[in-house]
Amino acid sequence: METVGATQIRRWSRVEFEKMIECGIFAPDTRAELIDGEIFSMAPQQSLHAAAISLAEESLRTVFGAGYTIRPQLPLALDPYSEPEPDIAVVPGSARDYVAGHPAGALLVVEIADSSLTYDRQQKAGLYARTGITDYWIVNLVDRKIEIHHAPAPAAASPFGWAYNRVESHTTSGYVTPLAAPSARIPVADLLP
Predict the structure, then answer these.
(1) 3-state SS, residue 122
(2) 160 to 6, 62, 187: CA distances (angstroms)
(3) Structural domain boundaries of the chain?
(4) CATH superfamily of 45-191
(5) Is 39 exposed, middle or buried (0-12, 13-18, 19+ CB in 10 A)?
(6) Residue 39 or 84, more confident
(7) 143: which DSSP letter?
(8) DSSP labels for 26-62?
(9) Is the pLDDT of residue 8 over 90?
């Protein structure tokens, strides 16, 4: 436990978090994720956000095809204290490969950002970089562009001590290419509602 002043902060493990879900601690419609031992409640989705998730899922399903699973808003078991639910995660294999447990990583993680833009750029980026996600995209609904994050590396001043060394922005006239599908070219306009 971490001590802050006279208060102790209790970090939850993934095992404890999953047990809470299993025991019904959270209401059935509660959307929550575990980030470095802290439980975060996720805001309800606006229609723009939901449309962007559907567009990203559709585009990535076309690009990756058989042999890959596109997981919309499903958990990733990234480390003993983190189980985020990214808007989209592309993982190898089929859904049946993950019946016994959530994937421990992803080939590509996509977050759709409107009100969460700062959080996705900082905390989520730091977490994904620390856990070895090499391809992280933010569909930035505020500025109508895609932000591509590559090359995770230690960065003491960043959240969780990690950051991405390379960040590129692509506007609606551009194209983006997943690292795991180097021959694909997805029009940015296809990902933005």
Answers:
(1) helix
(2) 24, 33, 32
(3) 45-191
(4) tt1808, chain A (3.90.1570.10)
(5) middle
(6) 84
(7) T
(8) S-TT--EEEETTEEEEPPPPPHHHHHHHHHHHHHHHH
(9) no
